[in-house]
Structures are given as C-alpha cells and as structure tokens.
Design a protein that fits this description.
415 residues; single chain; 24% strand; alpha+beta
Length: 415
C-alpha cells in the first residue's frame, strides 16, 4: 500500500533531520519528515542538561582539532555552515544566543525546547510534512532510491536522508535502526561504541566517595601508560566509578577499550607545583602538629576524600602529625598531584552522550553527503562515523551535515 509520495523522505526528526528538512523545503522540495516520536527533536530537547549547547563559537581550524577520526571529511560542510553561520541562523530566526566558558553557545533562555521548537516551526512554515511513523527499509531500484518502507506502508520518493542518530538515548528513538538500513544497501558500519560516557572503575574508594564533586582539578588519562588527554575542570565520583565533564571528554580518547589498559590521574592542586605544595603541607603540619594525621587534612581536601587519602598514603591514621617523616610526606604529596583511578570500562552506550563509529565516511561524498553507493541516498548527523569532544561540537556536526544534505539533495533537478 502506497502511503505517501514526496520528492524526498528524511528519516529522523532530530537535530540533523530538522535542519535538513527546513533547508530542503526552503529550496521548494516536497519534503516528508519521518519521526516515530510524537514530538520532534526529542533528544535535542534534553541535550546539555536541558539547556542545549547549540555549537562552539570557534573558527574552523579549532573546530577540526576537536573532531575525532577523519575530521577532514567535515571541512567542506563546515565551510558551508560554520559555527558562526549556525549562530547567525538561530539568531536571525529569533533565538537569542550567549557564549559561555569554553566558547560554548547556549540559548539565552537556557531552554533546549526553544531550539527544537524554533526548528519545528520553521519546518511547518516551509511546508514540511511530518509523518509519525517508523521507517523499516529504504527501497532502491537499479542503484537509486525509490522509496521508504514504513510500518504504515510505502512512501514513494526520489531521495532519502538517513538522520537516525546513533545508539545513545534509545528511548528518544536513537535505537540503531539506521545502521541496519544503511548496511542493507551495502554501506560499511564501523564498530559502534560509547563516546562522551562515564567510566567504570574497580577501585572501591570511588563508590566510597559517591556524589563527591571535584572542581578546578586537572585530569590526565593514560592508554598503556601513554598520556592521551589532560585538561582542567570538574568531575564527580559515582557508585560505579567517575563521571562529569572532564571524564566524559577523557572517555572520547579511549578508542581501544578492551584491548588497551586505561587509567586516570587527578591533580587535586593544579595551581601548586610540588615545591609549593610541599611548603603548604609543611605549614599545615606545623599548624596541626599535635593532632592525629586523619584530622590534619581538612584545609587541603574535602571531607569525603580525607579517609581515602589517609588510607592510600600508607600513613596510619592515628599517627601524630609531628612524627610524620619526609618520606611519608612525599608520598602524600604525590597523591595530591596524581590521585589514581583505574578504569575497567565504560558505562553502556545508552548512557553515552554520543555514539562513536557509524557509516564509513569513505562511502559518502563530503561535498553533498550523498552515498557513493546508492544514488539519492544521503546521510547526516550521528549516523556517520564522526564524533567530537564536549562543547557543542557534536551538534554542529549535525547542523552542518544536515544543512549540506538539505542543500544538495536532488540538486541536479533543483539548481
């Protein structure tokens, strides 16, 4: 049974799909947006803890440095819709933006619903038809898209854009079906894994400090003892290990989980070098000379962390401070500068912010987002094997690739 007929069908009403739909419709294309959720942009509405980190206010060179994998694939797309262009797009459409620490861009309202709502209204104004149905398969005849089979019937179309996202947040619709649809049409899908995800640790003291947050610390991540990440910021101890902005960023560098050994070191006092920290320890030890060691660290460490620091230092907790040796003090100093956390794995992919891996960019034209294997098939957003660090980079990938697909689809006929 034929359900609908359109110039193109866009599968997935998230960030990439919405940008693609309003862009294609503005060109005059009869555009049908397929989204099984009753609300468009469901995942977009919860990003950035409900605030939506729209993009990162940086130049293209800086942006590319924050992309993992083959960032060169994005060069053409970013030149057509850069972060600055994205900011102008939203502000011209009536959504005021602001730039915060790390060049992160948010709506002034701090409400992600305003971003999704604006895109939904643009689609409506430009005549995008929305069908709340789940796509099952993309049909192709003689190497070209001919339709999309949904749970309600067949949609005849001359082009289709896969914007189905990854595997993270499956309740929002990112359940991986797009990868299987791409695979059936001959596309290679690289190993899917969580990125920007909390990390698990077998160290019992992480659970012991559950809920304890660290601010203004420096986190270093190591792969087989090779430094792969170092940054200043915030993190959190949890019942399973560690989380927070620093940890999520560090996780995106851990591309060989299972075959490599990973560990973290936390510099609890990044503003003090070892010489200055030792002088600080000596002052505190003099101040609390007659106290037991377990009661002498309150000026340097949070209450939840003190019992762990005492235990890991190897200094008996009831030792009088004035009897602590230089060797013992040096071991404590090292703990403050390189607090260890072993990593046993990541949390499940459905707890990740983004999915690493996806449709191979080698099989997609970077100037149009069209498949090199199937005419009329396009890709945009997280379904592609592209991901970036935290800070608005992943949403910008969605905006840029969605825009390019929307501008390019059926371009030979609509020049």
């Amino acid at each position: 049974m034929n359900l609908e007929r359109a110039d193109l069908a866009i599968i997935g009403g998230g960030a990439a799909g919405l940008m693609c739909a309003c862009t294609a419709a503005a060109r005059g294309l009869d555009t049908l947006l397929l989204e099984p959720n009753k609300m468009l942009g469901r995942k977009l509405r919860i990003t950035g803890k409900g605030r939506c980190n729209v993009t990162n206010s940086c130049d293209i060179k800086t942006f590319m440095a924050n992309i993992l994998g083959d960032g060169r694939f994005l060069y053409s797309a970013l030149n057509r819709l850069s972060p600055a262009d994205t900011m102008a797009f939203f502000e011209d459409a009536g959504l005021p933006l602001k730039v915060e620490r790390g060049n992160r861009v948010f709506p002034v309202s701090d409400n992600a619903n305003d971003v999704a709502g604006l895109l939904s209204r643009l689609c409506q104004r430009r005549g995008v038809r929305v069908l709340h149905s789940k796509a099952r398969e993309i049909c192709a005849d003689d190497g070209a898209v001919s339709g999309v089979l949904t749970e309600q019937g067949l949609i005849e179309c001359r082009a289709a854009v896969l914007c189905t996202g990854g595997l993270s947040y499956p309740l929002t619709g990112s359940d991986g079906t797009g990868f299987s649809m791409a695979g059936k049409l001959g596309h290679s899908v690289s190993r899917l894994r969580p990125s920007l995800v909390p990390l698990e640790s077998g160290d019992g003291y992480c659970a012991e400090m559950q809920g304890f947050a660290l601010k203004n610390v420096s986190l270093s991540a190591y792969e087989d003892d090779r430094l792969i990440y170092k940054e200043l910021g915030e993190m959190l101890f949890t019942h399973f290990g560690v989380s927070g902005p620093l940890v999520l960023s560090a996780s995106s560098h851990m591309r060989n989980m299972g075959s490599a050994r990973y560990r973290l070191e936390i510099d609890l006092k990044p503003g003090l070098d070892e010489k200055k920290l030792d002088a600080r320890l000596l002052r505190d030890f003099e101040k609390y000379a007659n106290r037991e060691f377990k009661n002498a660290l309150g000026d340097l460490a949070g209450r939840a962390m003190i019992p762990v620091l005492v235990r890991l230092s190897g200094i008996p907790e009831d030792t009088k401070v004035n009897s602590i040796t230089r060797e013992q003090r040096m071991k404590l100093l090292h703990l403050f500068k390189a607090f260890p956390v072993s990593i046993s794995g990541t949390r499940p992919v459905d707890e990740a912010i983004v999915t690493a891996g996806g449709v191979s960019t080698r099989e997609v034209n970077p100037r149009t987002m069209e498949s090199k294997l199937v005419k009329g098939l396009y890709f945009a957003g997280e379904i592609l094997d592209l991901d970036g660090y935290t800070g608005g980079f992943n949403l910008q990938i969605a905006w840029s690739t969605g825009y390019v697909a929307g501008m390019s689809v059926l371009g030979d006929e609509y020049l």
